[in-house]
Amino acid sequence: MNNDQKLDKNSIGFWGVVFYAVSVIFPAGAFAVTGVTAMTYGGETAPLAFLVGGIVLFLAIISIYVFSQHISNAGGYYKYVEGGIPNKVISKSVGLWNAFWVVGDMIAASLVVAFFTYVGLAALINIELPFFSLILLSLIVPVIFLIVGYFGIKVTSLAAIIIGALQLAIFGGLAIAIVAKAQYNSAVYFNVSNSLDGFHGFFLAMVVGAFLAYGGYGSVVSLGEEAKLPTKTLKKSVVTALLIMIVFDTFVVYSIVAAAGPNLSTVDSVYAPGVYIADKFYGLDVAFFAFIFVIIAQIFSPIIFGNSGARTIFALARDGVLPKSLSKVHKKYKSPYMATIMVFIIVVIGVLATMIPMVYFYGDINGLFYSFALWGTAITIFTLMYHVVTNTALPFFIKRSGIKMKYIAYIVAPTAGSIIVIVAIYYSLIGLVLPLSMVYIMVPIWIVISIFIIYIRRKYIKIQTLDELTGAK
């Protein structure tokens, strides 16, 4: 590896990594975005969907916890898989799925900025924005990402700590205040039989609500080459961030459901239930402050997250899967700037190609909602897919590395997590109608494209040895 392909070592510490994950998970999202999708499909069981979804993901953490102790690479998940299953099609496919996930998340998040601004202003002060302003709003994310990503991980880390801490304080405090006034506090919201549409609705709420929200915890695995003491920092930060966010998101979603009670469908119909409840309980000033900060946080979440996508693309290019030019590192800022520019271009194209036809066919509010819900569903399916492959690769890695096998921790628990994930995928995908049913096309197409890319680049692709991956001498 030459100096033009080396990232800046020891650039981000433990709390920087924790708040990187927290900011990507986007605490304000439970109040404003992912909470909405969970309520839309799971009804009053949305808090349970967030709680169960988080518990399931703890089973997936086992693989990351073990792998990150031995492999520190910008390729993250696909390098973990490569450590267990040194097959170019399998490992590099996971890398391309991961890249699709990050870029798709940025597209979805960019659309959410436009969507939430539109519905928030309509709900609070009865103003409807024209379509051209929605396009401009949706492009704020990729433009700022390009600037922040270009200047390296230190700038991103500082932004993550500030924005993440403010979100936890502001929306945690607001949720406590809402629960204090809520008239419908109850345990019924944690009974799956109360799901709006049975198991289909509950699992769909887990997929497009909880899994979509929590999926950001894995974004830190791409920081392996830049974190301080990565073999210790990454595993601890992932556990810490997910613990914080499971408690936080479950409570925030509960506060909204408990405040709405039997009127949840009416509250949810405004597409900004958190803001609506804040307005009803504490007035327009509080609601408008929450609304503004949701937008700020929503802008910075994908900006931070996009750095993980740029590093995955950078690592894939370094391995020969993508053009070599995408593996260049900026001489001064030590950022994968060419990969960052590529992510910017793809996100802009994706936003416009999704928003324009969706709004044309379904109108402004529904078109924007379906746009991010569609991308959210598709990328969450890929998140679950590469978690299953990573879990499967773990015992193979343990055997190849000569580590003592712990059957419950390394095989039984990750397998149980994979089974639950597969069940969630099945129940969430059955019976989808347009436009969400387009995921039936999007997912297979990207799988085929991934295999095609690997095939045409097969002469350039390299698989690292176990010693190279683990840094063994």
Topology summary:
Layout (H helix, E strand, L loop, with lengths): L13 H12 L1 H6 L1 H9 L3 H22 L9 H8 L3 H38 L5 H8 L1 H11 L2 H29 L14 E2 H17 L15 H31 L3 H5 L4 H10 L1 H35 L18 H26 L1 H38 L5 H23 L9 H18 L9 H5 L3
Give an overview in words.
- The structure is a single chain.
- This protein is mainly alpha-helical and 473 residues long.
- The chain has one domain: Amino acid/polyamine transporter I, CATH 1.20.1740.
- Helices cover 74% and strands 0% of the residues.
- The protein is built from 19 helices and 1 strand.
- Helix 4 runs antiparallel to helix 11.
- The chain is globular and about 60 Å long.
Total helical elements? 19
What about the largest sheet?
A: none
| Class based on secondary structure composition and strand pairing | mainly alpha
- Low-confidence spans: pLDDT under 50, at least 5 residues? none
| The CATH fourth-level homologous superfamily | Amino acid/polyamine transporter I
- CATH topology, anyone? Amino acid/polyamine transporter I
What's the N-to-C terminus distance?
A: 16 Å
Strands, total number: 1
Shape: globular
CA gyration radius, whole angstroms: 21 Å
Please bin the fraction of helical residues.
Answer: over 70%
User: Mean of the pLDDT scores?
Assistant: 86
Amount of beta strand? under 5%
**Which CATH architecture?**
Up-down Bundle
* Domain module count: 1
Which CATH class is shown?
Mainly Alpha
Helix-strand pattern: HHHHHHHHHEHHHHHHHHHH
